[in-house]
């Protein structure tokens, strides 16, 4: 058994206890599948950062199982694995609650201007408390539009309802049409897997449908958003944007995790052309995610 990365479990001990003595190769950190010798591997443990395509499978003639440490599996060529008689597994529901909590954290950060406040304090320019300082946006009574009401989407909905938010959702065959959801929601939160149907689901046209005060949160795959259109929409004077995570252009299209806020409805005026700008926070790699849905059973 070969792993592309260190793991928070004793993989060798678990394998030995389950199947008996076995050679288990686990590196001290992520090294990537390209650098591994797979010629004798019966099993491969990989991350969403690893692109497991037909070329990788061809390097592993003895491989019988690919264990993907993620909920989504868009980084694995399932058809090529199936043709080679290789089983593909994932880790559903492991990070449902964590991802829902992180979604709410990003929502709070965008609505209540937490990155702005942190940057102000760290700069040393904070003037002290002011009545109209960094007011942000109320969430109670606002509409949360969830794209993909699976395990994570439902977990987010439960938390948002506790905040007094109204819930709307969109998914194939249920809820609102996607365009209508973008138009009516005060917050749009993405919880759909990355498929050909959802790649660039958030594009310039749908961003234009959003309310001037809307917030967009993505804890799904980065490829669900057209980043060029997003950054154009974040340009002054229309919007404010905060985001964290690796770029979706990485070979495995890892999960982009960020929140995007268009013009806030209760910010104090200050000089300049509508005085809003794009605010970038630090990059953060995150591999939590939404539940897998195969194209044979759901459109996305």
Question: Can you walk me through this structure?
Answer:
Helix 4 (about 95-110) packs across helix 6. The protein starts with a strand and ends in a 38-residue tail after the last strand. The chain is α/β, with parallel strands linked by helices. It folds into two domains: about 1-90, NAD(P)-binding Rossmann-like Domain (Rossmann fold); about 95-260, Rossmann fold, CATH 3.40.50.720. The strands form two sheets. A seven-stranded mixed sheet has the order 7-6-5-8-9-11-10, with helices on both faces. The chain has helices spanning about 10-20, 55-60, 80-85, 95-110, 115-125, 150-160, 180-185, 205-210, 225-235, and strands at about 1-5, 45, 65-70, 85-90, 145, 165-170, 175, 185-190, 215-220, 240-245, 255-260.
Provide the helix percentage. 25-40%
Which superfamily, in CATH terms, is the homologous superfamily of the largest domain?
NAD(P)-binding Rossmann-like Domain
**Second-tier CATH architecture of the largest domain:** 3-Layer(aba) Sandwich
The largest sheet, given as strand count, sense and whether it forms a barrel, is: 7 strands, mixed
Low-confidence stretches at least 5 residues in length (pLDDT < 50)?
237-247, 249-258, 262-299
- Rg over CA atoms, rounded to whole Å, is 21 Å
Task: Quote the distance from N terminus to C terminus.
Answer: 32 Å
* Count of domains: 2
Strand percentage lies at 15-25%
Principal-axis shape: elongated
Round the mean pLDDT to the nearest integer and report it.
82
Secondary-structure element sequence?
EHEHEHEHHEHEEHEHEHEE
Number-wise, the strands total 11
Order of strands in the sheet with most strands: 7-6-5-8-9-11-10
Q: What CATH first level of the largest domain would be assigned?
A: Alpha Beta
Instruction: Give the number of helices.
Output: 9
| Structural class by helix and strand composition | alpha/beta
CATH topology of the largest domain, anyone?
Answer: Rossmann fold
């Amino acid at each position: 058994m070969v792993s592309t990365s260190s793991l928070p479990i004793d993989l060798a001990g678990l394998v030995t206890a389950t199947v008996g003595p076995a050679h288990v190769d686990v590196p001290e950190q992520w090294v990537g599948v390209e650098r591994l010798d797979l010629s004798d591997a019966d099993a491969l443990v990989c991350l969403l950062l690893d692109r497991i395509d037909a070329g990788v499978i061809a390097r592993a003639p003895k491989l019988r199982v690919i264990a993907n440490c993620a909920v989504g599996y868009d980084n694995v060529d399932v058809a090529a694995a199936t043709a080679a008689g290789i089983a593909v597994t994932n880790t559903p529901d492991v990070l449902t609650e964590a991802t829902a909590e992180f979604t709410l954290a990003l929502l709070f950060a965008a609505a209540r201007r937490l990155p702005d406040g942190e940057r102000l304090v760290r700069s040393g320019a904070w003037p002290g408390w002011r009545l109209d300082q960094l007011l942000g946006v109320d969430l109670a009574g606002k509409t949360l539009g969830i794209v993909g009401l699976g395990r994570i989407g439902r977990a987010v909905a439960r938390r948002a309802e506790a905040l007094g938010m109204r819930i709307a959702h969109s998914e194939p065959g249920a809820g609102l049409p996607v365009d209508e959801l973008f138009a009516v929601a005060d917050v749009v939160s993405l919880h759909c897997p990355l498929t050909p149907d959802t790649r660039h689901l958030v594009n310039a046209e749908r961003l234009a449908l959003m309310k001037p005060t809307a917030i967009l949160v993505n804890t799904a795959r980065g490829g669900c958003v057209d980043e060029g259109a997003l950054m154009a929409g974040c340009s002054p004077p229309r919007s404010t944007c905060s985001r964290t995570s690796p770029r979706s252009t990485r070979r495995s299209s890892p999960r982009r995790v960020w929140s995007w806020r268009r013009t806030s409805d209760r910010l104090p005026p200050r000089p300049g052309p509508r005085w809003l700008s794009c605010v970038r926070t630090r990059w953060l790699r995150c591999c939590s995610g939404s539940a897998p849905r195969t194209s044979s059973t759901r459109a996305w």
